[in-house]
Amino acid sequence: MNTMADGAAQRLVAQIGEALFDQPGMSLPELANQLRELRGTGPALLLQSEGNTHG
Fold first, then answer.
1. For residue 2, how many other CB atoms are within 10 A of its CB?
2. Which residues contact 43 (CB under 8 A, 6 or more apart)?
3. Which pLDDT score, from 0 to 100, does residue 8 have?
4. Gyration radius of the chain's alpha carbons
5. What is the DSSP string of the chain?
6. More exposed terminus of the chain, fewer Cβ within 10 Å: N or C?
7. What confidence tens digit (pLDDT) does each residue in 14-46 have?
8. Using a CB cutoff of 8 Å and minimum separation of 24, what contacts does 44-53 make?
9. How high is the pLDDT of residue 49?
10. Residue 3 has pLDDT above 70, yes or no
């Protein structure tokens, strides 16, 4: 069930992805992996799972 909080979380993740990488469709794990790789602290650690919309 979608609640107002779910919708707000999805919008926030989209705004973060757009602000950092100009890609509003990224999920939280994708954002975390991309940041980790860009910081040079190693390869991506978080795995993507099907249907995971906001972490």
1. 8
2. 36, 37
3. 92
4. 12
5. ---HHHHHHHHHHHHHHHHHHS-TT--HHHHHHHHHHHHTS-S--PPP-TT-S--
6. N
7. 999 999 999 988 999 899 889 888 888 777 776
8. 52/27, 53/10, 53/27
9. 59
10. yes
